[in-house]
Task: structure prediction
Amino acid sequence: MTTTHPKKAQSAVSVKSFPAPKQLSTVTDLKPDETQQITEAVNPLIADLFALYVKTKNYHWHLAGSHFNDYHKLFDKQADQTFAAIDILAERVRRVGGTTIRSISHIGHLQTIDDDNNEFVSAGEMIRHLMEDHQHLVQNQRAAHQVCEKCRDVATASLLENIIDETERSKWFLFEILQGMNNTD
Ligand SMILES: [Fe+2]
Result:
């Protein structure tokens, strides 16, 4: 006889990231409105980084074809870099007094990058999807950077500058691989 664990019904996502409960309202000289704007600008970036991390790993695991070795390694490296940015941004939200990502359903609610649940994706399509996702992410990161600057949060803005640079680096690699596919084959 097999035992199964009944699934809990997923309640509609209603995670409130601001204001934080009293115990989590980190003391700050920022105004409540500034903390709110920063929290609401940065949390979707974190959700997108989670979504991109899983998608990049998905492609790392389900890759096929003649470029397997190169792309398998590239995707792993890019996934590690994406993952590293998550904690950096989440802890910034906490330092300025907001709360951050709580769950997979919270990520699903905030993410703006599409998941890819297709049974098979060609290597070329993987490169194209990831390039477009990085491009999309960079636009949102730049917009959040402006919000942070406007709200006097120079530290988050500064960290975002490094994250934007790394996102653009990954985008550049993917873009050049795409150029090779379009021009030579
Ligand atoms: Fe691996």
Remarks:
- The chain has five helices and no strands.
- The pocket of fe (ii) ion is lined by residues 60, 76 (CB under 6 Å).
- The CA atoms of residues 104 and 177 lie 32 Å apart.
